[in-house]
Amino acid sequence: MHKLLTVILVAPLVGCSAKNSTIETANIDDYTTNRIANIIETQVKNVDATHQSEIINRVSAEFLGTPYKADVLIGSPTEPEKLVVNFDALDCFTYLDYVNALRQSGSESDFFKKLISTRYINNDISYTHRKHFFTDWSHRQPLNARDVTAQISSHTVVVTKYLNQRENGSEFIPTLGIVKWDVSYIPAEFVNDEVISHLKTGDYIGIYTQIKGLDVTHTGIFIMTPNGAVLRNASSMKKNMKVVDSPFVPYVKNTPGIIVLRAL
User: What UniProt keywords are attached to this protein's entry (predicted)?
Assistant: First the structure.
């Protein structure tokens, strides 16, 4: 079994407000601690920081084969939020959290700071401030990415969404509230070679959903490999149940379409 550590984060380090002067994380095993240090040293520090596509490619590849596990974060309307850091198992969203934080980190303390800003609105470690929706990344401060969907394809469709509102008017996530904004996506039928030519390795991809109140049902990272374009993703498919490279166009063709965010 992995030895467990407990990390205490102090507000000046992470930019949290004084009311959250100390935040205790969930237990972090020594495997995760060592992996954070190793990935930063071998895949981030030795690459020019301006080459973010390459850094995201290298960092995300470090997780290939990592087991998929749903609902890995701790927190709910009735349970206090904890800053979960666990590289033993991932869901599709925490995978992007870790990659986005690691790509900007020069040290372990940097990583915790970047993870908080990636995962939480205004760096507030709380359930209601968690960035629950993919498009939060391009709408909620601090921003993780910008929405480039409309720049990728002239066939982009814009839909007004009331995020978190079910068809019957209730909330998917109680106490979170409902937010209205326009969501842009490229329908799957138009995801072709032309679209691929405008995507960049490291682009964050959301699989658009027509379900009212939600923006995406899955996320991943666009990577151009020597064998073609792939969606690098923490897959919940029974045949996978781990982080894999899925052929991009065949995968997307079986979905409503894609949202494209580009890392800042």
Answer: Lipoprotein
Q: Which two tokens stand for residue 148?
A: 């480039």
Contacts 24+ apart (CB under 8 A), 66-72: 66/90, 66/95, 66/234, 66/242, 66/243, 67/241, 67/242, 68/234, 68/235, 68/236, 68/240, 68/241, 68/242, 68/243, 70/236
What is the pLDDT averaged over residues 112-126? Answer: 97
Residue ranges, comma separated, of all CATH 2.30.260.10 domains in the chain are 143-263
Start-end of CATH 1.10.3670.10 domains in the chain = 4-129
Q: What is the pLDDT of residues 161-217, one digit of tens each?
A: 999 999 999 999 999 999 999 999 999 999 999 999 999 999 999 999 999 999 999
Which one-letter amino acid corresponds to residue 112? F
Phi-psi region of 208 (alpha: psi -120 to 50; beta: other; left: phi over 0): beta
Whether residue 256 contacts residue 209, with contact meaning beta carbons closer than 8 Å, is answered with: yes
Per-residue model confidence (pLDDT) at position 184: 99
CATH architecture label of 4-129: Orthogonal Bundle (1.10)
Q: What CATH code would you report for 143-263?
A: 2.30.260.10
Q: Which residue spans within 53-136 are E strands per DSSP?
A: none
